[in-house]
Structure formats: structure tokens, C-alpha cells
Amino acid sequence: MKKLLSLCMLVALFASCGSLDQKSQVGLKGNWTISSVTYPGSEYIKVTSFDVADSKCFEGSSWNFISNNNKGTMTLTKADCPAFTSPIVWTITKEGAFNFKITEGEKAKRVTQGYTLQIRNQTESSFQLVDNVTVGGKTVEVTYQFSKI
């Protein structure tokens, strides 16, 4: 019975890896900063990003992506914003979905809430993550512009 369970788990692992975009994931390896956060109406409307802080607090934040184990960290340090640092786990699917969890020191499998954004315009030195959020009954795109450090 243990062998059958182990075999099923191994098949599930390989099946899930087949849907990941390894090239895009390797392209994120390293240290990045969010140079801007933009969305329609940003001068009037506040958006809380990832249940952490106002989206504008993410400008200047530091992100580290480790592609061989899909882990990393995010750190917010902007003045007049809450200081926040947490480990993250992340993947990119072949469909361009960037999935991540803020683990705050917990094992990733114990963290049930995560976020899915679209990755766009990826180059060696920049990329964008786009989140669709509902503001005032309308869906708007919040764009996080990343630059390589």
C-alpha cells in the first residue's frame, strides 16, 4: 500500500511540474525591486496589495527569487508604510500565471491562501506582474513593474 501511495505522489509531482514554465522561472532568478505600481484611478483610490499594505507601499520593495526551489523573500521598507519581510514560495505556469504564497515562516503547505497574477513583458532586466482587483464594482488591473537590481 505504501508503494502505491508513493507512486501516486510521484506521478502527481511530475504532472504538476509539466505545467510550469521553467524558462520564465529561471529568468526571475536574483534580486529585484518594484519600481512602480500603477492602476487607473490610483490618485483617488487606495488598493491593499496581498493583504499586507497599500499598493504604493510596494514601490521600492525588494524581492528575491530562487528558481531552483521556487522560494524567495519580499521586503517592504518604504517610509510611512509598515515594515514587512516574509519568505515566499512561487511558480510560473505555461499560461503565464504567477502564483505565490507569503509564508511568514510557516511551511508552504500549511499556508492556504495565495495569490495569482499574470506575468507580462519579461526581459533579463524587467517584468510586470498584473493583478485584477475589484474597486467600486469595477475590475481594474494593478501593474507592479519590477526592475533587476
Give a structural overview:
By secondary structure, the chain is mainly β. The protein has one domain (20-148): Lipocalin. It contains 2 helices and 10 strands, in the order ααββββββββββ. The protein has helices at 2-17, 22-27, and strands at 30-38, 48-49, 53-54, 62-66, 71-76, 84-92, 97-102, 115-120, 126-135, 138-148. The termini are far apart. Residues 1-17 form the signal peptide. Keywords: Signal.
Name of the CATH first level? Mainly Beta
Mean pLDDT figure:
88
The tally of helices reads 2
Strand content: 35-45%
Structurally, the number of domains stands at 1
SS-derived structural category? mainly beta
Radius of gyration: 17 Å
Architecture per CATH nomenclature, i.e. the level-2 architecture = Beta Barrel
DSSP strand count:
10
How would the global form be characterised?
Answer: globular
> Biggest sheet, open or closed, and with what strands and sense?
8 strands, antiparallel, barrel
Order of helices and strands: HHEEEEEEEEEE
Amount of helix: 10-25%
How are the strands of the biggest sheet laid out side by side? 1-4-5-6-7-8-9-10
